[in-house]
């Protein structure tokens, strides 16, 4: 993924544009102002017919070899729901039906908002896409807690478990304020 | 708001970068690739103690003079919830407590995802901020339906009404798929 701040070209200096009230990333070469906004990650906690949960072992940095949920940056020209389904297909060749929004996680420090949906697999066959080394279905008590790629994977798995036990349908948010 | 495609500087040509699978907006002057992602709008349907709903009459384009909910682009370094509260303060000097997520609207054509929260005003005094001509509290059956600024304001008011009547807490999404 692209990080303009590390770049030698394009927007890389902070200045306050005319008529604005805060510093924005601008390009000293051509004057372009890059209005930075949080990026949306869409992802899914998908369960098979026997309630096992789909995880993917990452084939790409960061956190190669660790387990994650199918998730990625939402593209233009798709809904959040379609983005979540697209990621599940790209990373795990999974076909699924979304059953509702599980959680919104705001990760202010890394400029992300994650929209995590719940889903059921419409067929239990899954296989690794190009960004996954392996995909696997886990019972909740067999999940690889010590080998999860990101804290939000841990949050989402626990929130999904709570939702699963309680029939709960309200969206969760960050477990604690200061983890934003 | 900034629209790079209309600009004579910065990223303005579509090319497929090395290692990518689709066209991205690139700058022909310096080679910078602008990964475009949907932008997050955070907003709020806030009710006073007598259940009246807070609207703002827009003082800025687009749709000057029309009524809208307090809403705006989420900034970096804030959570979605804080963004919604910030917008309510900036546009209506409203102090409120969020009571849950009302809806996620994906507006693919305009590259927005709107996260709309429900709220109650913690004090009933509100007043116009710099982007509002006027702010006002409306009973549901007195809402200015013909003078709403955007379709999503209409959606959110109706979804909030449904939620209010039913005690419903599950997040809504676009009313129909093809309005994305
Ligand atoms: Zn430039
Ligand atoms: Zn450039």
Automatic annotation (TrEMBL), chains A, B:
<dbReference type="InterPro" id="IPR015797">
    <property type="entry name" value="NUDIX_hydrolase-like_dom_sf"/>
</dbReference>
<dbReference type="Pfam" id="PF14803">
    <property type="entry name" value="Zn_ribbon_Nudix"/>
</dbReference>
<dbReference type="Pfam" id="PF00293">
    <property type="entry name" value="NUDIX"/>
</dbReference>
<feature type="domain" description="Nudix hydrolase">
    <location>
        <begin position="37"/>
        <end position="160"/>
    </location>
</feature>
<protein>
    <submittedName>
        <fullName>NUDIX domain-containing protein</fullName>
    </submittedName>
</protein>
<dbReference type="GO" id="GO:0003824">
    <property type="term" value="F:catalytic activity"/>
</dbReference>
<dbReference type="InterPro" id="IPR029401">
    <property type="entry name" value="Nudix_N"/>
</dbReference>
<dbReference type="InterPro" id="IPR000086">
    <property type="entry name" value="NUDIX_hydrolase_dom"/>
</dbReference>
């Amino acid at each position: 993924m692209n990080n303009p701040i590390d770049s030698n070209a394009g927007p890389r200096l902070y200045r306050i544009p005319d008529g604005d009230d805060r510093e924005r990333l601008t390009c000293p070469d051509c004057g372009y102002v890059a209005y930075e906004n949080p990026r949306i990650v869409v992802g899914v906690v998908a369960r098979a017919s026997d309630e096992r949960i789909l995880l993917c072992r990452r084939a790409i940095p960061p956190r190669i070899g660790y387990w994650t949920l199918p998730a990625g940056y939402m593209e233009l020209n798709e809904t959040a729901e379609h983005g979540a389904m697209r990621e599940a297909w790209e990373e795990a060749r999974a076909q699924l039906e979304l059953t509702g929004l599980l959680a919104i996680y705001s990760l202010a420090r890394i400029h992300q908002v994650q929209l995590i949906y719940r889903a059921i697999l419409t067929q239990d066959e899954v296989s690794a896409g190009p960004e996954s080394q392996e995909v696997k279905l886990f019972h909740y008590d067999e999940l690889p807690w010590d080998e999860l790629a990101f804290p939000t994977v841990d949050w989402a798995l626990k929130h999904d478990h709570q939702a699963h036990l309680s029939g709960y349908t309200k969206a969760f948010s960050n477990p604690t304020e200061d983890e934003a």
